[in-house]
Structure formats: structure tokens, C-alpha cells
């Protein structure tokens, strides 16, 4: 008897986890979708002056990769045609077409979440070739220069190279002839290339990266730095300043592998302006934009694809099963009595509109008024259905009066009361009366308090926004909820309150 | 603390609500047979077909239109009981002990005029007392004149005997004694006392009143322990037999002992309560497990099952 239920629960769990894993591993969903989202708002504006021929402007823009997530991006092509290309690891926006004599304005904007590197195992990169146009003599020279640091640990060697590019060679100085040749080389090729050559000679895999400093700023120029693999992790080195940065790097990469961020063909780009702003965006919008643009199968069947006004309903609806789960827990594990099975869930939903204090107050108020009237009606000997109808009318009347009072005194909560589940309230009054008459007031109040208590707990759960978001992003979590419900259905142990009820057995 | 008390309860073999529902009621009692026990009239008809004695049936009221004609019919009876066929937990049952000029006298002395009685029957028919609020039938049967054995420990009303029967074997029992609070009714949740019965001896043990153990009746102050229950073996036989006719394997059988007619079957309950364990100071689960371990030939006849119970479930033998 127990086996099939457990098997079903396991099957539901496996299915749910498989779907979630698929989303996390393949669709790159966040593991904790509700973690606070601080993002960078990046925008770029530029104006193009045309040449005689058709002009093309190629600009490197950030793409989703390890360490950063592009949530949304917009391109403003103006009158030009626009293409998005990939070039190696880089994403390049290409604006092309004939430029009017007045010039053309183009733009780009995106929202980027810079994530702390996930603890993914990075493969050690292979040692690449020397930068182009570097002859045999220069290679030999560079090797001679870095030779003396070979016994040092990698991080220390990196530090020495960074210092050397800035002219500090340290004792013992290389011989004057080598030093002279090197500074001539560095003057012609620049510090970035010089650093790359020295790093290659010292056996460090390295690449030049161009991008922006991660700080709120407006700038017209990009910076170039070098990412170096020290055998354990990536470090970055800014040759112009001779500084070395550990993770997280204070940069936003635009292009890597020595590719310039901005390239133009038959034209001239002027007034390039990069703007970076820090922003905290709405969790819902962040998921919404990302999933709306995806063509993956599960993304197309995501709840985020619903029109926004219906999304609000589903945010709550999808949590109702958790409320039901709470009722299972409180009834079958704890043993609290409640009126009916789902009254507390409906009450909890109503509390969302009225707030907890007013909601509870109205619940008790209406039930008590109903009880008094019901007691009095008993004398009239009304038949069952008409009698229930009278109580229903009374409940609606109470709610109407409350709404009018709320309007008079400016209490919105009293007007929101209309959504309280009035049918359920009616049945509650009847059950409350019957239990008090038949079993006694203690049992009646105990059951009413149980219902209200379960409703409060359920309300508390429905109000947790991170939970709403998590279930909205991963609706398959409902299968997990169902699995727990199935397991609870086969719980045959004692209820907590039974331990109290049968206390005579274990106390003696 | 929670683990320890759970362990203790399991050690004594106390049956909890969850296990009762999942392991016994759902497994032993096919849903299709529930109407036989949920409807007291059907139970009564079934019992008669199987030669099990029940209180004589006077009248059945099916429709509101039958009520006006009832007055004349009731004129012939001095005392009687009105019951809803599908009432739960004793709700809607009224006992009338006398018939006077002003109307009918309830067992608590209150006089009920005919129009009130008609209103009550109308309520029953509308389903006020029925399990799911469905339309119901009312019936009127003979008032039982209880055997005097429990007179000293009964405050008005009729005491009844509840026997839990599992797979046809009586497992545990108690006598339920009405109190002033319970208004003559024998339902524990209304404040009646439940007094455990030693299955082998047929004598009463300690009692339970509102979850607490009692040795004396709260209204009469007479001891409830050590009373020998008359017709004990016959009642066990009736209980064991009553279960066979229903097709249900886990039942509470409610009996009354009439002064003249002896034990009568009152009703059957497919979801008998767990309070009986406190009345007996014994765990039901342990006994149910013993029944499951009993040799197959025990279940062959009603007599063998009862004999096995008398052998196995004496309070002394279990300790």
C-alpha cells in the first residue's frame, strides 16, 4: 500500500528536478531567482560621418558569458541596417549603409548583471602564439629578459613583468644593450603588446581585453587590459598603470583577443559616448525581458509569456497548492481542527486584499454577528436551505455595511472585504453554530481559532515575494509540492496533538 | 520529548487518527459498503434479515407531506425515539419518555409540543443532521428500557456498549454512560463517560470523561469500575456477526441492553473514535496487530472468533 505512493512521489520529484536542472544547466536560469538583482545599465551613442562608399561601423557589445548576464539589449539603427554578428568569443553589432551628409546617429543600450564567477571548473587555457609581427630577435630578447624570474612563483613573476613594462626592472638589471633594445621595442609597439610579449616569453597564457571600467561614468574612450592565467586562476593586469587586479575584475569587457571595440569602414565615427549606471531593477521585469526574448521550448511555455495582467493572478494562484500543503501539515501532522478543508486557503487569499489585522477582525466580526443571528433564527424554525440563504444574505449585508463604512472613513481595507469568500463564511457560521450547540463552545472556538491560525500561516506564505518569483520561474516546483502532498497522504504516525491527547499512556 | 513520547505511544500500541484512517478504515472498509452503516434504517433492515435483534421500528418519515399524518400515529405510543437515518455522532436524536396532554416529554423532562416535534422532523428531512447535508429520512423506533445494571452510573438516557470489531474479531469495547452534560446521550464528545470493558471477563474498567480518567460517575458519584456487563458473550457474538453482514472489516458496533429483550443492535459506525483507548488504558493498534497475526482458522466462524477474543484480550493476559 505504501510503496506505490512513495514511487509516485519519487517520480514527481525526479520529473520536477529534471525540469529545473534543465533550466539551470542549459537555459542558464539562476539557481536563486529571487536574489537581489543589482545591474548595470550600459548605453552607447555615437554619430557617424560618411565617406563616398557605403559605410560600416562595427562595435563590440557585451554578450552573456561566464561572469555576466545580458538581461536585455536594444540597438538603435537609425536609418542604417543593423546586424548582430559573432566574431570568436565577441559579439559585434554592425551598422551599415549609406550615410546622409548630415551624418547619422546610432545607439545601443543594455542591462547587464555582473555575477560573481560561478565556481565552474575552468580548463587551463593553452599557451597561444606571440602577437603578430613579432620577429625572432624580439622573442629571444624577451625570453632573455624574463629568464631570471623563472624560479619565482607565478604571481610574483606576473608582478615583476607588470613593473618592468613600467620601467622598473629591479636588481640585477638586465645588460644595457638588451634594455635599450627593449625600450625601443616598447616605444614602437606600445605597452600592451610589450606586456603580451613578455608574458608569452614567461609562459603565461594571456589575452588583451578591451572594455570599460565598472564604475558609474560617462566616457568616450575604452581601456585595454590583459587577462593572465597564472596556473590557478585569471588575474588581470592594466599595463598603462602597471596594476594587477584579482577577481572580481573592475572591468566590463566588450571585446577580447585583441579585437578593437570600434572599427569603421569608409567612414568616421565621432562623439562616441559610453554611459554606465548602477541600477536595481524589478525582479519580475528582469526575468520577463530575458525569457520573452528566448526561443527555447521551455521559455516559450513559461508563465512570463502570459499577458502581464494575468501574470498577477498566476503569481498567487501558483502558491495556493503550498497553502493546501500547509493545511495538510497542520491538520495531519499537528492535528489542528479547521472548518472544512479549504476555508483557510480562501481566507488567506482574502487577507491579501484586506491585510491581516483587518482580515482577521472582519472574519471574527462576521462570524460572531452571524452566530448571534443564527441563534435567534433557530426559534423561527426555518427549513435548511432558506435558513442558509438568510445567513448568506446577512453575510453580504455585513460586508456591504463594512464597505460603506470604509468609504466614509477612508479605510480601503473595509472595501476590499468584498472579496472575502462569502459562501465559505456562511457555511462557517452554520458549522460554528452546530458545533457550539452539539459539542460545546470550547470546541467551536477552538475550531474557529484553528481555521484562522491556518489561514494566517498560509497568508504568510503567499506573501513571500521571493517564493512567488521562484515558483513563477520554475512552475515545475508544483510537482515537488504534489510529491510532498502524496507523502503526507501516507503519513500514518501520530499527530502532535494526539501526543497530548494520549498523554496518559506515556506519562505513567 | 516528541520522539520519546511517540516511541512510548507506539510501544503501548496506541492507534492514531492518521493510521486509523489510512491503514484500517481505507484498507478494510470499501467505500461502496459505507451507505449500509451510514444509514441507520438500512442497517436495521439488514440486521433484521440476519436475525440480529434491533429496537422495534414504529415509523419511517420520508417526505415533509407525511408529517401532518404523524400526530395520529404517534398517539398510540407512550414512549419512543426519533432519529435521522443518516445522522452523525448522535445529532438529531431525541428520546421521549412520556406522552402527556401538552405534548411529548423528553428524557430531561422538557415538554415538546407536536408542532416543535414536527419542526424537528422537518429539519431531519432537510438534511440538517445528515453527514453531507443531503436530504434524509426520519424514523421513529421503540425507546429502549435499559437493563438496570448501569442505573447507578447513568444520568437519564440510555447507556450503550461500543465494540470495535476488526476482521470479524471483537478487539476492544467500552460502555458509554450518559451524564447531565451529555443530555442523556451516550456520545463521548457530548460529555458522556466511556468506561472500558475487560474483553475476557466482561467487567468494567476505569472510565474516560473529556480525555481524563475517572473512576466515579460525575453526577451520581457511584464507582464505574468492576461492574459485570450482562449478556457479555452474546453481545460479542452479535457484534462479530453484525460485521459479517456489512462487508466492512473495521467497525464500531453500538449495542444497548434492553431490560426484556436483552442486547439489541443500535447502529454501526465505519469511523469509530479513538477515545476508547483511554477508557481501556490500552492501545488498539496492538490488538489489531494481534488479530492480523492470528491463525487463519480463527476466522472460520463467528463462535471461533469470539472464543479467540475471550482467550486473547483479557486485560490481564495482555499485561
Structure report:
The complex is a heterodimer of chains A (508) and B (319). With 508 residues, chain A is of the alpha+beta class. Chain A folds into three domains: 38-118 and 276-286, Immunoglobulin-like; 136-260, C8orf32 fold, CATH 3.10.620; 311-473, no CATH class. Chain A contains 18 helices and 14 strands. Chain A has helices at residues 2-25, 136-147, 154-165, 176-201, 283-292, 297-300, 308-317, 320-334, 343-354, 356-377, 384-409, 412-415, 422-438, 441-462, 465-473, 477-489, 496-501, 503-507, and strands spanning 38-50, 55-61, 68-76, 81-87, 90-97, 104-114, 206-213, 217-219, 223-229, 234-238, 243-245, 251-256, 262-265, 267-280. In chain A, strand 10 (234-238) and strand 11 form a beta hairpin. In chain A, helix 8 runs parallel beside helix 16 (477-489), helix 10 (356-377) crosses helix 13 (422-438) and helix 13 (422-438) runs antiparallel to helix 14. Chain A is elongated and about 115 Å long. Chain A starts with a helix and ends with a helix. The relative contact order of chain A is 0.12. The mean pLDDT of chain A is 82. Chain B has 319 residues and is an alpha+beta fold. Chain B folds into two domains: 2-52 and 146-318, D-amino Acid Aminotransferase, Chain A, domain 1 (2-Layer Sandwich), CATH 3.30.470; 57-142. Chain B has helices spanning 2-12, 17-28, 34-38, 40-49, 67-74, 114-126, 232-246, 276-280, 284-293, 302-312, 315-318; strands at 57-61, 80-84, 94-99, 104-106, 111-112, 138-142, 160-166, 169-177, 193-197, 204-209, 212-214, 250-258, 262-269. A seven-stranded antiparallel beta sheet of chain B has the order 11-10-9-8-7-12-13. Chain B has a six-stranded antiparallel beta sheet with strand order 1-6-2-3-4-5, covered by helices on one side. The longest helix of chain B has 15 residues, at 232-246. The chains are: A alpha+beta (508), B alpha+beta (319).
Amino acid at each position: 500500500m505504501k510503496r506505490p505512493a512513495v514511487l509516485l512521489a519519487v517520480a514527481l520529484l525526479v520529473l520536477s528536478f529534471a525540469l529545473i536542472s534543465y533550466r539551470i544547466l542549459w537555459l542558464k536560469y539562476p539557481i536563486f531567482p529571487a536574489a537581489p538583482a543589482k545591474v548595470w545599465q550600459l548605453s552607447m551613442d555615437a554619430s557617424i560621418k560618411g565617406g563616398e562608399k557605403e559605410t560600416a561601423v562595427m562595435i563590440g557589445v557585451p554578450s552573456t558569458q561566464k561572469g555576466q548576464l545580458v538581461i536585455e539589449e536594444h540597438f538603435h539603427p537609425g536609418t542604417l541596417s543593423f546586424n548582430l554578428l559573432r566574431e570568436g568569443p565577441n559579439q559585434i553589432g554592425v551598422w551599415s549603409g549609406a550615410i546622409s551628409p548630415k551624418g547619422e546617429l546610432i545607439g545601443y543600450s543594455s542591462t547587464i548583471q555582473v555575477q560573481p564567477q560561478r565556481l565552474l571548473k575552468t580548463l587551463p587555457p593553452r599557451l597561444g602564439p606571440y602577437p603578430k609581427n613579432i620577429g625572432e630577435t624580439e622573442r629571444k630578447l624577451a625570453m632573455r629578459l624574463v629568464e631570471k624570474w623563472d624560479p619565482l612563483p607565478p604571481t610574483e613573476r606576473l608582478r615583476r613583468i607588470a613593473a618592468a613594462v613600467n620601467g622598473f626592472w629591479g636588481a640585477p638589471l638586465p645588460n644595457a644593450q638588451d634594455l635599450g633594445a627593449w625600450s625601443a621595442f616598447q616605444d614602437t609597439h606600445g605597452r600592451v603588446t610589450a606586456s603580451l610579449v613578455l608574458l608569452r616569453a614567461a609562459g603565461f597564457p594571456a589575452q588583451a581585453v578591451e572594455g570599460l571600467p565598472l564604475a558609474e561614468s560617462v566616457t568616450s574612450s575604452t581601456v585595454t587590459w590583459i587577462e593572465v592565467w597564472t596556473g590557478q586562476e585569471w588575474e588581470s593586469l592594466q599595463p598603462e598603470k602597471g596594476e594587477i587586479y584579482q577577481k572580481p575584475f573592475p572591468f566590463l569587457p566588450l571585446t577580447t583577443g585583441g579585437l578593437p571595440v570600434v572599427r569603421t569602414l569608409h567612414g568616421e565615427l565621432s562623439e562616441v559616448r559610453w554611459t554606465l549606471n548602477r541600477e536595481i531593477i524589478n525582479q519580475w521585469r528582469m526575468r520577463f525581458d530575458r525569457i520573452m526574448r528566448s526561443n527555447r521550448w521551455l521559455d516559450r511555455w513559461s508563465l512570463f509569456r502570459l499577458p502581464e495582467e494575468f501574470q498577477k493572478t498566476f503569481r498567487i494562484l501558483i502558491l495556493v497548492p503550498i497553502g493546501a500543503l500547509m493545511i495538510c501539515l497542520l491538520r495531519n501532522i499537528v492535528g489542528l481542527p479547521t472548518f472544512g478543508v479549504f476555508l483557510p486557503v480562501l481566507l488567506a487569499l482574502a487577507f491579501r486584499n484586506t491585510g491581516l489585522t483587518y482580515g482577521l477582525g472582519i472574519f471574527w466580526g462576521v462570524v460572531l454577528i452571524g452566530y448571534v443571528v443564527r441563534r435567534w433564527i433557530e426559534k423561527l424554525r426555518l427549513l435548511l436551505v432558506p435558513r442558509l440563504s438568510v445567513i448568506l444574505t446577512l453575510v453580504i449585508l455585513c460586508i456591504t455595511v463594512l464597505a460603506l463604512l470604509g468609504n466614509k472613513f477612508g479605510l480601503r481595507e473595509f472595501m476590499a472585504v468584498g472579496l472575502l469568500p462569502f459562501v465559505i463564511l456562511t457555511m462557517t457560521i452554520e458549522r460554528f453554530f452546530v458545533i457550539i450547540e452539539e459539542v460545546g463552545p470550547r470546541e467551536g472556538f477552538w475550531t474557529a481559532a484553528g481555521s484562522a491560525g491556518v489561514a494566517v500561516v498560509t497568508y504568510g506564505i503567499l506573501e513571500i515575494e521571493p517564493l512567488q518569483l521562484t515558483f513563477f520561474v520554475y512552475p515545475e516546483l508544483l510537482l515537488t509540492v504534489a510529491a510532498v502532498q502524496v507523502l503526507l497522504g501516507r503519513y500514518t504516525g501520530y499527530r502532535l496533538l494526539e501526543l497530548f491527547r494520549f498523554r496518559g499512556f506515556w506519562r505513567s | 520529548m516528541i520522539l520519546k513520547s511517540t516511541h512510548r505511544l507506539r510501544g503501548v500500541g496506541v492507534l492514531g487518527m492518521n493510521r486509523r484512517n489510512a491503514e484500517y478504515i481505507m484498507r478494510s472498509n470499501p467505500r461502496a459498503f459505507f451507505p449500509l452503516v451510514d444509514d441507520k434504517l438500512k442497517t436495521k433492515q439488514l440486521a433484521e434479515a440476519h436475525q440480529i435483534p434491533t429496537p422495534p421500528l414504529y415509523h419511517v418519515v420520508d417526505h415533509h407531506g407525511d408529517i401532518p399524518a404523524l400526530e395520529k400515529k404517534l398517539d398510540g405510543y407512550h414512549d419512543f425515539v426519533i432519529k435521522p437515518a443518516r445522522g452523525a455522532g448522535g445529532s438529531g436524536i431525541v428520546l421521549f419518555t412520556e406522552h402527556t396532554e401538552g405534548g411529548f416529554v423528553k428524557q430531561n423532562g422538557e415538554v415538546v409540543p407536536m408542532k416543535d416535534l414536527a419542526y424537528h422532523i422537518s429539519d431531519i428531512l432537510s438534511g440538517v443532521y445528515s453527514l453531507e447535508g443531503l436530504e434524509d429520512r426520519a424514523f421513529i423506533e421503540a425507546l429502549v428500557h435499559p437493563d438496570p445494571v448501569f442505573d447507578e452510573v447513568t444520568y437519564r438516557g440510555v447507556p450503550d456498549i461500543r465494540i470495535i470489531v476488526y476482521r470479524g474479531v471483537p478487539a476492544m469495547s467500552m460502555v458509554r454512560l450518559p451524564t447531565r452534560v451529555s443530555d442523556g446521550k451516550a456520545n463521548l464528545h457530548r460529555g458522556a463517560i466511556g468506561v472500558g470493558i475487560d474483553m475476557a471477563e466482561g467487567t468494567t474498567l476505569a472510565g474516560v470523561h473529556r480525555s481524563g480518567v475517572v473512576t466515579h460517575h460525575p453526577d451520581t458519584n457511584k464507582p464505574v469500575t468492576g461492574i459485570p456487563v450482562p449478556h457479555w458473550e452474546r453481545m460479542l457474538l452479535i457484534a462479530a456477526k453484525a460485521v459479517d453482514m456489512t462487508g466492512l472489516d473495521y467497525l464500531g458496533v453500538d449495542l444497548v441492553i434492553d431490560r426484556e429483550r436483552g442486547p439489541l443492535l443500535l447502529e454501526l459506525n465505519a469511523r469509530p473514535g479513538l477515545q476508547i483507548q483511554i477508557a481501556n488504558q490500552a492501545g488498539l493498534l496492538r490488538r489489531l496487530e494481534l488479530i492480523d497475526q492470528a491463525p487463519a482458522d480463527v476466522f472460520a466462524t463467528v463462535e471461533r472468533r469470539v472464543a479467540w477474543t475471550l482467550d486473547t484480550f483479557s486485560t490481564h493476559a495482555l499485561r
